[in-house]
UniProtKB/TrEMBL annotation:
InterPro entries: FAD/NAD-bd_sf, GDP_dissociation_inhibitor, RabGDI
GO biological process, alphabetically ordered: protein transport; small GTPase-mediated signal transduction; vesicle-mediated transport
Superkingdom classification of source: Eukaryota
Source organism of this protein record: Chlamydomonas reinhardtii
Protein name: Guanosine nucleotide diphosphate dissociation inhibitor
Single GO MF annotation: Rab GDP-dissociation inhibitor activity
GO cellular component terms attached to this protein's record: cytosol
Stated family: Belongs to the Rab GDI family.
Length: 442
């Protein structure tokens, strides 16, 4: 392993694999190393035996759950917005050719103790109990304004300056009730808390536009989300294939690897007696314990069930958002569900995940509102993970470190971090000029 590289990447989480693939395409000589014997790092998808090793050490999975090989259980469950940044990265790199996508059946939101489908079209909006008749008219005017809004065309601004106006002021301009604001801000704009209300309206309007564009990117979608067959573990492996095509080298099962520094600058890695040198080192926080800080904790529950989530029209895949006000919390809770239809569980089994940012010392109690929506579960596992962030941006010590994965069930914040890392490493923005849409199975 005593060689020179342009870049060494540590960890095969999704973020690290995307960076590895992008830099390989840029003709960089990349060495990619992981202490684990599987791809995915913190964002891996595990089979049933691996899942039990992680949560029930020494116990064997019950036969009632079906074959271990039928399971691909995501450790960081997330959907992709159909017109979001991750899909655009997949298109830009042509990684889509390694993946199969299935549309997500529905997006739901909790309001006053009941879950309601977030309307996917005009007729659903008219029937939705989320709003009364007059409120629907006001909301329609708001949505038409957002859909038509073009930053470069002042005629679409209707005299409103979204950079100076707060989101609360824009809601007030359209006379929208608090309940309507709640589902727009959390289920469409995908904000995690209500801090956005006092901030500039522009970012929220652009988020709502992204939701709308994702919903109509493909014909017949019932939600704006996509999900890969065989689980999210397919994503890091797809980017690993991309890197390998462009000459990247991969080494798994290297538990002793550590970063090598000279004069405080990362210059490579040590692996026992072997040394590999590089101009810079990229990796997840676990490889740089002295260069990161814990900024929060996320708690996730994984449930295996033999039925869909109640009140979701027997859906094979759904997202349910529980806005903070609806549960008396400071941040939102997310329920994510997929099933055997996505090749992630045995026949007639569903996987449900409940995630939130921890606010107390009792993680299981924090998830109770989300768990209550699931109905009976066969197996349940709960895990608390630190969310870490790098102390510095990497430009001085050439150690470029990703952030931990938050509680959200979509990839926008994940890819924001990747694009920011790419900019710091290369000095330029990644061109995400859209290509042809991916192929999606309804």
């Amino acid at each position: 392993m005593n060689e020179e590289y342009d870049v060494i990447v540590l960890g095969t989480g999704l973020k690290e694999c995307i960076i590895s693939g992008l830099l390989s395409v840029d003709k960089k000589k990349v060495l990619h190393v992981d202490r684990n014997n599987y791809y995915g790092g913190e964002s891996a998808s595990l089979n049933l035996i691996q899942l039990f090793e992680r949560f029930r050490a020494g116990a064997a999975p019950p036969p009632s759950l079906g074959p271990s090989r039928d399971y691909n259980v995501d450790m960081v469950p997330k959907f992709m917005l159909a017109n979001g940044k991750l899909v655009r990265v997949l298109l830009h790199t042509d990684v889509v050719k390694y993946l199969e996508f299935k549309a997500v059946d529905g997006s739901y939101v909790l309001q006053k103790g009941k879950i309601h489908k977030v309307p996917a079209n005009d007729s659903e909006a008219l029937r939705s109990p989320l709003m009364g008749l007059f409120e629907k008219r006001r909301a329609r005017n708001f949505f038409l304004y957002v859909q038509d809004y073009d930053e470069s065309d002042p005629k679409t601004h209707k005299g409103l300056d979204l950079n100076r106006m707060t989101m609360a002021e824009l809601y007030k301009h359209y006379d929208l009730t608090e309940d309507t604001q709640d589902f727009i801000g959390h289920a469409l704009a995908l904000h995690r808390d209500d801090a956005y209300l006092t901030q500039s309206a522009m970012p929220t309007v652009l988020r709502i536009k992204l939701y709308h564009e994702s919903l109509f990117r493909y014909e017949g979608l019932n939600s704006p989300y996509l999900y890969p067959r065989y689980g999210l573990g397919e994503l890091p492996q797809a980017f690993a294939r991309l890197s390998a095509v462009y000459g990247g080298t991969y080494m798994l099962n290297q538990p002793a690897v550590e970063v090598l520094y000279e004069n405080g600058v990362a210059v490579g890695i040590k692996n026992g007696a072997d040394v590999a040198r590089a101009k810079l080192v990229v990796g997840d926080p676990s490889y740089f314990p002295d260069k990161v800080r814990v900024v929060g904790k996320v708690v996730r529950a994984i449930a295996i069930m033999n039925h869909p989530i109640p009140n979701t029209d027997n859906a094979h895949s759904v997202q349910i958002i529980l806005p903070q006000k609806q549960t008396g919390r400071k941040s939102d809770m997310y329920v994510f569900c997929c099933s055997y239809a996505h090749n992630v569980a045995a026949k007639d089994k569903w996987l449900a995940f409940v995630s939130t940012t921890m606010e107390t010392a009792n993680p299981e109690a924090e998830l109770s509102a989300g768990m209550a929506l699931l109905g009976p579960v066969e197996e349940k596992y709960i895990e608390v993970r630190d969310i870490c962030e790098p102390l510095d941006d990497g430009t001085k010590d050439q150690a470029f470190i990703s952030k931990g994965y938050d509680a959200t069930t979509h990839f926008e914040t994940t890819v924001d971090d990747v694009l920011d890392m790419y900019r710091r490493i290369t000095g330029r923005d990644l061109d995400l000029t859209a290509k042809e849409p991916v192929t999606v199975e309804a």
